[in-house]
Design goal:
This protein is mainly alpha-helical. The protein contains 16 helices and eight strands.
Length: 402
């Protein structure tokens, strides 16, 4: 990393100084930041040259004195060279510590990030979902690549994380990595968690994110309308696998379960609800929040279809669910076959439940939020796009009053 580096020997007169010798200090400046240390020498101010930073005169005593200062200066330059070869970020304090022999307890940001990810990995399945771990691993890779790109080093001292680092990281994600706004903000949000750990541990004194403002932009959520749901439901497929993927996707459309929750759903989690009908009683994989959803007739029919499946009987699960990657690959094929131009992913089923199946049919958003397992209605609003049709129906009731 390129640094602006300078040295200065100067006299530091104590308070209430009248006369006598004055201590000589060494000031190291790197990129405008200073660090000072005593040289363990002093002199008469009348013998000192502020212009040269040395004693005046050519006497042997003056030459010996100045040779000592020259030696200190050479040691600082050697420390600078050593840190440069080690590809360590050079700071005034770091040069001072190397000169004085003070051992630094250096914490590197990527080491802290890796330790965080190791802990998350240990807690996958209890406190964290597997997808959360993958998200942090991707964020770690982006952070490491950014540090190499900007500073040409393999890691960086936590104390060197500042506002410029954050702003430059944001620029890197958007320009070099070609991330969209929301992706860039989410990666920086993941990195911010590591920064918070550093602040809480006392390794970082100030928050480099304090003046960084970036917001996730609201995007239109894709969902299936009633006509598309019906078209998919009645479609006959050549292969059994496509039929299974379609059924599981539609089950999620009528229950709002995310992929991870459908994947782990067990037959024992289908219970009799307070109304005597079948309900799902489970906990969300992502948040461990309890979710209770009354089953609509199409969902019950799909559930019954797989009740005697050998795979389900052996595993105890409600459905023979493939990996999310395979499900999404098959859904693209299913969309083509059904003449649906929308880019289908399994998560669209959750959007469809929130929008087409519930809100557009008059289910209050509070009930939808509870069934989705949200703790905040604001989160539900991101999923649920109120249809113009529903708005028209609501306004027609008022129109009759005028």
């Amino acid at each position: 990393m390129k640094t602006n580096f300078s040295l200065l020997f100067y006299l530091k007169k104590p308070k209430n100084y009248i006369d006598g010798t004055v201590p000589i200090y060494l000031r190291i400046t790197v990129n405008g930041k200073r660090a000072e240390t005593t040289t363990a020498r002093s002199c008469d101010p009348l013998q000192w040259s502020s212009k040269t930073g040395r004693l005046k005169g050519t006497k042997e005593s003056a030459r010996t004195f100045n040779a000592y200062l020259d030696q200190l200066q050479a040691m600082v330059y050697a420390a600078h060279q050593s840190l440069t070869e080690q590809k360590t970020t050079i700071t005034a304090d770091r040069l001072k510590n190397k000169l004085t022999g003070k051992t630094e307890n250096i914490k590197m940001i990527l080491d802290v990030f890796r330790e965080h990810n190791r802990q998350v990995s240990t807690l996958v399945g209890t406190d964290f979902a597997k997808g959360t771990l993958e998200r942090y691993r991707t964020s770690l890779k982006h952070t490491a690549d950014f540090i190499k790109w900007k500073y040409n080093v393999n890691d960086i001292d936590i104390r060197d994380i500042d506002h410029d680092f954050v702003v430059s990281y944001d620029f890197y994600l958007r320009s070099v990595r070609k991330c969209g706004n929301n992706s860039a903000v989410k990666y920086l949000k993941n990195f911010k968690k590591i920064v918070r750990i550093c602040i809480a541990s006392g390794w970082l004194k100030s928050d480099p994110f304090i003046n960084y403002k970036a917001k996730v932009k609201v995007v239109d959520r894709v969902f299936l309308n009633n006509e598309e749901l019906k078209r998919m439901a009645v479609k006959e497929f050549v292969t059994e696998r496509l039929g299974q993927i379609r059924d599981i996707f539609l089950f999620s459309c009528f229950t709002g379960l995310a992929y991870a929750d459908v994947y782990k759903l067990r037959g024992t989690e289908i219970i009799a609800g307070p109304d005597g009908e079948k309900w799902i009683n489970t906990k969300r994989q992502k948040t461990a929040i309890s979710t209770r959803v009354p089953l609509l007739p199409p969902a019950v029919a799909i559930l019954n279809k797989y009740s005697d499946s050998p795979v389900c009987e052996h595993s105890g699960k409600a459905f023979p669910v493939s990996t999310n990657q395979k499900m999404n690959a098959y859904l693209k094929e299913i969309a083509d076959i059904c003449g649906i131009s929308k880019k289908l992913t399994f998560h669209i089923a959750r959007h469809t439940f929130a929008t087409t199946v519930t809100l557009s049919n008059g289910v209050p958003i509070e009930s939808v939020s509870k069934m989705l397992g949200h703790t905040n209605i604001k989160t539900t609003q991101h999923y649920a796009k109120i249809l113009d049709l529903k708005v028209g129906q609501d306004m027609s009731k008022i129109r009759q009053l005028y």
